[in-house]
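Structure first, sequence second, as always.
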């Protein structure tokens, strides 16, 4: 049911430094019907005076917030993730607006994440690598950088609007006010239902991260990657697989290939028959 769509979205804050911001974020996500807040290596006390003062009646969001040390922990169980950025990056994937990209988090019944960077620097290129799509909020080019809590508030509002559209269309379907005549005319809610089986097989992002780490180690070992260029090459490889939407079984197969390569490199003697 689409009533549960927002409950599946987690707001991930990477190294938040200000208790006032964290408290304000807790308040606005509760205002908008979201429930999950994850803090990655926070630099402030989520239950401190500043945070609780700004949260007002959303202290329960702070109390229930999950504290983790790394991004893979924050994304454990998620199949979709969007990262936010305030500036253009040297990445091939386009930067999308909230209204364009955020429906993707709700259109399938899977766990998803919306990732925000620290107040002083935003997300690094390494941190952006954990996401499949990227969001930038359009703003005044003379002063484009928004406060962290403002950014979360804008995105939370847009997510709420998407959910309301899904609920409205569900109600129309139940009442018989909308007839689906072709696959091209499916509503988002009907599309979400069709995604159920397909999306449930998709590999979680933490499983993909384990695969990426193994792939990088093997490719370094065989000389395809070099230490000084590994990061940029791996960014491109990550984006290939992120776009592909590989399943859990496919990740297992790919990891099996690399495991066999690791075994051969470790235990088999070198081939001396080649000149």
């Amino acid at each position: 049911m689409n009533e549960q769509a927002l409950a599946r979205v987690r707001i991930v804050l990477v190294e938040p430094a200000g208790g006032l911001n964290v408290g304000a974020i807790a308040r606005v996500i509760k205002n908008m019907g979201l429930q999950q807040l994850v803090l990655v290596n926070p630099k402030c006390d989520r239950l401190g005076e500043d945070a609780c003062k700004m949260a007002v009646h959303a202290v329960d969001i702070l109390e229930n917030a999950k504290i983790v040390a790394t991004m893979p922990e924050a994304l454990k169980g998620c199949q979709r993730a969007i990262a936010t950025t305030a500036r253009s990056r040297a990445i091939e994937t386009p930067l999308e607006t909230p209204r364009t990209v955020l429906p993707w988090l709700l259109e399938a019944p899977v766990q998803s994440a919306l990732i925000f960077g620290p107040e002083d620097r935003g997300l690094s290129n390494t941190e952006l690598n954990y996401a499949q799509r990227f969001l930038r909020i359009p703003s005044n080019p003379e002063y484009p950088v928004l406060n962290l809590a403002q950014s979360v508030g804008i995105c939370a509002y847009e997510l709420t609007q998407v959910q309301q559209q899904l609920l409205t269309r569900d109600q129309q379907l139940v009442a018989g006010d909308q007839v689906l005549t072709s696959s091209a005319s499916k509503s988002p809610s009907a599309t979400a239902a069709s995604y159920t089986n397909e999306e449930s097989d998709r590999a979680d992002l933490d499983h993909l991260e384990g695969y990426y780490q193994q792939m990088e180690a093997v490719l370094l070992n065989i000389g395809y990657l070099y230490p000084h260029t590994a990061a940029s090459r791996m960014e491109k490889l990550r984006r290939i697989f992120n776009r592909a939407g590989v399943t859990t079984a496919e990740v297992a197969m790919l990891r099996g290939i690399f495991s066999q390569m690791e075994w051969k490199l470790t235990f088999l003697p070198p081939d001396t028959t080649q000149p």
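Margin note: The chain has two domains: 5-162, 201-266.
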